[in-house]
Amino acid sequence: MSTKHVRPHKRRDAAPARCPSLVPMREGNALSVAESTFQLLAEGPGALALDGQALGLGLPARLIDLAELRGLLLNGATDEAKDAVWAELVRRARTGDPAWVIGCVGVAMPGLKNISARAIRTAPERLADDIVSELITEFVAQLQRVDLDRRNIAPRLLLWARKGALRVQGRESRLVPTDPTEVPAAPAVPEAEPVGLLAEAVEQGVITRAEAALIASTRLDGVTLTEHARACKEPEKRLYKRRERAEARVAAALRNGQVSAISSVSASKNGS
Asked: What is the pLDDT along the chain (272 residues), one digit of tens a residue?
């Protein structure tokens, strides 16, 4: 299959979901540049696309450009479909075509922006650009290394991206200040990466994969509960109660040590 496809027709009722900006993007910011490039590659004639019919798993049985595909992954795609899509995206990125590398970054943009916002919020402003650059560099590097036979491909890629962002903060904390008034505060206990924490909660049987997807979608990816309910064709009130109960179980598991905030940050030590 060609790496680029011309879509015969784009359905008006399937407009791609736009990636919400979770952190102010300055001109030249690496994420902003990547998003702009992604939009050029993923929309319109000749857009990068995957064959939904070949992938199956509930995806539309037609060519799906990556801009639309990103929206589908955020709004109701099953975990199996997400892994199938990401396995295909990574395989194409591994061919060496830079367009598909940008395609992977663009599809992961909601998660990358979330990680970027959290890292920048707890770092000196002067490190913002370095954090974003390192985050993207690590994400791209892991496209060549991530194990496609294991589940949760995208969450594992994002864990490595977060590790890259934290690396910048770690270098800063090792610098010895020349002015006693600039002595940095003691580093805080690492904050759990939400995606990793949810993945660990699923592995420990605290919540189901569906509950983890509900929490990730409505808490991390900027999807409203109303939108999620519409995509899943379930009553919003039922989903609200389900999310509330699942989050309570995760909180209890954190308190009793069944899942660990520390291990969810350093899960990448066990390999991508």
From this structure: 444 443 444 443 333 333 333 333 443 378 888 888 999 898 777 899 999 999 998 899 999 999 999 999 988 788 899 999 999 999 999 998 899 999 999 999 999 998 888 888 878 888 888 889 889 999 999 999 999 999 899 999 998 888 888 888 766 654 444 444 443 443 333 444 567 778 888 888 889 988 888 888 787 666 788 887 887 788 988 988 899 898 888 887 776 777 765 444 444 344 44
Under 8 Å between Cβ of 230 and 74: no
Q: CB under 8 Å to 268, separation ≥6 — which residues?
A: 156, 159, 160, 163
CA distance 137 to 213: 26
Containing H/E element for 87? helix 79-93
**What pTM value is reported for the model?**
0.57
Contact 116, 82 (CB under 8 A): no
Whole-number Å distance between alpha carbons of 220 and 158: 13
Which DSSP letter does residue 125 get? Answer: G
Contact 212, 199 (CB under 8 A): yes
For residue 166 the two structure tokens come to 């934290």
